[in-house]
Amino acid sequence: MDAAFFDMDGLLVDTEKVWLKIETEVMKVLGGVWTPEHQTHLVGGSMERTVDYMLAVSGSSVAPEVLRGWMIDGMVAELAGGVQTMPGALELLGDLRAQGVPIALVTSSLKEIAESVLAAVGREHFDVIVTADDVTRTKPDPEPYLTAAALLGVEPVRCVVLEDSPNGVAAGTAAGCAVVAVPSLLPIEPAAGRLVVSSLTEVDVARLRALVPPASM
Fold first, then answer.
1. What are the protein's UniProt keywords (predicted)?
2. CB atoms within 10 A of CB 174
3. Predicted model pTM
């Protein structure tokens, strides 16, 4: 295994409930109603997709850039109070670091939001950070994971992606990586090159290495 790529929201940190809170509050300002079912349409997606969907659901005429600003400000303010890491995440990061495996954080969230999470979790866990601001196409496009691999100078086929959403799994698979899926709000089925577990506590470095094909001679 040449590198491990961690998603952020829902995989590294328990922020899906934070997103739901901020989306609900902003939707009230827009004059609409927001439910957990609405949120499932946005799991693993970009801010642009979130803004477009919220405007469509609410029927509001608020400018997209204004709504985008409300969402960013709300998330940054909420995350300033701290974040909860997902079970097993910090332990796995520590074990990977101890064994010298390069690690990238690859998220569809904007840089401002990722920085708020990293301030709480610790940037030192990651060799490379790839956010929505660093790519032209976000997940499910493979560009974010291909970008991380290029920055680390590794081959995607020898890397493992850890994800919680179908969009993220699709991106990792399209990039050519092995994938560990820890489903959060949406189900993810096992498939070739994909391990599905209920928690990162079920995964260790040896299990990740076993997902990667042997290096060609």
1. Hydrolase
2. 16
3. 0.92
